[in-house]
Amino acid sequence: MFARATVVSALVLVAGGLAGRAEAQPAATAAFPVATVHLERNTTDSDYEVVFEVTGAQDGLAELTVLGPDRRTVVAFKAPDSSTLGIRGFRFESPEPSDIKAVKSAYPEGIYEFSGRTSKGAKFAGKSTLSHRVAATPTLVKPATPTATLSVKDLTLAWSPVEGVAAYSVGIKHEESNVNLTAMLPASSTSFAVPDGFLTPGKKYKLAIGAVTREGNITFVETTFTTEK
């Protein structure tokens, strides 16, 4: 036993002496800060879409690939020139068919694998599980109709609770001025107080309330309202 151990030690020393001539080992692969996939359902438009979101580190990504559970490549990005510094953040959205069967076939449930490389050679990887489970649709309480006229001050929007959700998302947008507000609220919430000063008198706004599952899937209902002049 002792003799064998001595030989091993000698081999380690020799290998150490030759390290300068050995090929460089590949750099360790880091985890993406953000690498997710989720399903969105818009019950107002009766459509579905799958969304991929990826955020790298400080350096931009020169390459990004996403493989589905069936090993198909669903995302493949490559920067044409390293001088562009790559891209740090991505949001990929599928088409929005009304046929959920088509979405499920194109993007099956399971683990999606993300891999990327920066222009400096750093490697990143990540995994995210896609589920097809979606929540029920929130029912809007205020505004109750798309023709509602609401105050610009002390305005509280409201909706009925949805069983089994993890959170709610609220989005308010005025498309002409490209002004929007987005908030994520806890599952216990059934209302949202719009900050005074955000709304402008006499304008038409688009409102989206989303019920978010624990898997990150979102069921949206959309409407519009107009502010008092």
Structure commentary:
The chain is 10% helix and 45% strand. The protein has 229 residues and is mostly beta strands. The chain folds into 2 domains: 29-130, Immunoglobulins (Immunoglobulin-like), CATH 2.60.40.10; 140-227, Immunoglobulin-like, CATH 2.60.40. The strands form 3 sheets. Strands 2, 3, 6, 10, 12, 13, 15 and 16 form an 8-stranded mixed sheet that branches. A 5-stranded mixed sheet has the order 1-8-7-4-5, with no helix packed on it. The protein has a 3-stranded antiparallel sheet with strand order 9-11-14, with no helix packed on it. It is globular. The relative contact order is 0.17.
Percentage of residues in helical conformation: 10-25%
* CATH fold-level label of the largest domain: Immunoglobulin-like
Q: Summarize the main sheet.
A: 8 strands, mixed
* Measured distance between first and last alpha carbons: 92 Å
CATH architecture of the largest domain, by name, is: Sandwich
Summed up, the helix count is 2
Tell me the series of helices and strands, N- to C-terminal.
HEEEEEEHEEEEEEEEEE
